[in-house]
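In response to the reviewer comment on reproducibility (Comment 2.3), we provide here a single inverse folding case reported in full, input and output, so that an independent group could reproduce the run without further information from us. The C-alpha cells appear first.
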C-alpha cells in the first residue's frame, strides 16, 4: 500500500500551523520562566548583599483600616534586617478607626526599633494621628500639618425629596435606630447622641497628642480647634520636631545608633507592575473627573466618624 503526500499529516497546512504555534508558545513560556528565575535570583543576591536596611512605609491618600498594611508593619517589627522605619506621609486623614489602627501599629513598631515620620505636602487629622506615634516628626516649612479633630457629617435632603415627591418611612426598634434620617435635619436627641460620640473620640485624640507631644491638655485643646498650619507654625506650636525631609530624618536616625549609609527600601505599599499601575491611574483619572479624587481607591465612601481635612 502506498501513501500520497495528502495522507501525511505533516503536509496538512492546519497541522503545520498548529505545530508552529505550539513551538512558539513553548519558547515564550521558557523565556518567561527564565526571566522569572533571573529576577528571583537577582532579588536573593540583592538581599544577601544588603542584609540591613531602613524600611520605607508610604501613607498616601485617604486612610482607612487595612489588614495588608497591618501585616507589613507587624513583619517589620520582627525583621532583624530592618534597623529603622521611615514613614512618609502625604494624607488629609480619613476614618478615625483607620487612624487609630495606624497609630497603634506604629506605636508597637516604635517599641522595637526607631521610627521616624516625614510629612511631605500634607499630614492632617488621622494622618497626624499616625505621625505622633513615631519617635520624631519632620515636615517641610510649607507642609500642611494639624487639623486635630473629629467630625461626622449629615446631609438633610428633606426639601429635595419633598419636591420630587418621595416620602421616606421606617419602622425601628428604638428612637435612635437608623438615625439620622436623610429627610430630616440633625436635631434633638439624635444630635445629642452624635455630639457625645464626637466628643468622646475627640477627647481621646487630644489625650494622645498631649501625651506624645509633651504638651499640657489646655495647650493641646487650644491647637485642637481643627486649624491647619504650615511646618514653621507646627514647629513653633510643638506639633513637629524638626524642619526637613528624608535626608534629615535619616541623619537623625543615625544619631539613634542606626548604621550610616543603610539603603532605604520601600516595603509599603507593595511594588506594582506597569499594567496594574496603568489601571490604577486610569481609575484615579475617572474619579477625579467625577470629583471623587479624595475618596479611597476602592470607591467606598468615608462613612461614619472621620478625622479628615479638605480645603474648599
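Designed residues, in position order:
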Amino acid at each position: 500500500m502506498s501513501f500520497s503526500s495528502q495522507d501525511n499529516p505533516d503536509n496538512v497546512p492546519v497541522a503545520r500551523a498548529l505545530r508552529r504555534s505550539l513551538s512558539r508558545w513553548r519558547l515564550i513560556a521558557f523565556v518567561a520562566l527564565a526571566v522569572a528565575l533571573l529576577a528571583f535570583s537577582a532579588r536573593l543576591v540583592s538581599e544577601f548583599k544588603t542584609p540591613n536596611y531602613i524600611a520605607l512605609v508610604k501613607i498616601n491618600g485617604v486612610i482607612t483600616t487595612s489588614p495588608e498594611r497591618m501585616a507589613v508593619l507587624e513583619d517589620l517589627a520582627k525583621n532583624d534586617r530592618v534597623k529603622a522605619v521611615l514613614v512618609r506621609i502625604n494624607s488629609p486623614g480619613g476614618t478615625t478607626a483607620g487612624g487609630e489602627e495606624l497609630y497603634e501599629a506604629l506605636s508597637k513598631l516604635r517599641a522595637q526599633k526607631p521610627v521616624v515620620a516625614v510629612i511631605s505636602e500634607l499630614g492632617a487629622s488621622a494622618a497626624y494621628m499616625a505621625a505622633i506615634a513615631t519617635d520624631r516628626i519632620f515636615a517641610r516649612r510649607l507642609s500642611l500639618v494639624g487639623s486635630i479633630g473629629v467630625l461626622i457629617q449629615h446631609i438633610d435632603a428633606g426639601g429635595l425629596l419633598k419636591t420630587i415627591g418621595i416620602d421616606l418611612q421606617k419602622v425601628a426598634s428604638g428612637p435612635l435606630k437608623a438615625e439620622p434620617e436623610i429627610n430630616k435635619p440633625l436635631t434633638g436627641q439624635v444630635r445629642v447622641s452624635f455630639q457625645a460620640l464626637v466628643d468622646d473620640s475627640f477627647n481621646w485624640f487630644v489625650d494622645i497628642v498631649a501625651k506624645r507631644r509633651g504638651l499640657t491638655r489646655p495647650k493641646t485643646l487650644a491647637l485642637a480647634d481643627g486649624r491647619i498650619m504650615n511646618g514653621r507654625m507646627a514647629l513653633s506650636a510643638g506639633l513637629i520636631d524638626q524642619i526637613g525631609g528624608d535626608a534629615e530624618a535619616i541623619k537623625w536616625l543615625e544619631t539613634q545608633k542606626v548604621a550610616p549609609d543603610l539603603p532605604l527600601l520601600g516595603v509599603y505599599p507593595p511594588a506594582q507592575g506597569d499594567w496594574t499601575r496603568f489601571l490604577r491611574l486610569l481609575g484615579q483619572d475617572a474619579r477625579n473627573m467625577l470629583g471623587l479624587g479624595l475618596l479611597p481607591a476602592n470607591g467606598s465612601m468615608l462613612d461614619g466618624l472621620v478625622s479628615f481635612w479638605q480645603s474648599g
